[in-house]
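Proteins fold reproducibly. Look at a sample protein:
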Amino acid sequence: ANVDALAAQLASRDASLRVRAAKALADLGPAARAAAPALVAALADPDNDVRRGAIAAYRAVLPGAKPPPEFVRAIAVDLKDADATVRLIAARALGRLGSAASAAAPDLDAL
C-alpha cells in the first residue's frame, strides 16, 4: 500500500474511505511513519469511527512515541459519550498514558 495515498485518503470527504485508510495505516505499523502528520490531523475528525481509527493507527505507526496533545484530546472526546462503556474505555486509555494525559484531567474530573 502506498503510504502517501493512504495519508491523502484521511482527508477524503467520504468517512468510510477515511476509516479504511486509518485501518490500512494501522496494519502497516511503523512502515507508515510518514503518515504521522496526516494521522495527527485525523485525530480531530468529527466522525467518531474515523477519530477512533486514527487513534489506533497512531499507536500502531508510532509505538512508544510520546503522545501529542491532539492524541490526548482525541481520546478525551469519548469521555463525554452517551455510552458508559465508551467513557470507561476512554478513561482507561488515558490512564495508560500516565502523565502524558494530564491535559485531559479536567474531563476526567467531570466524570
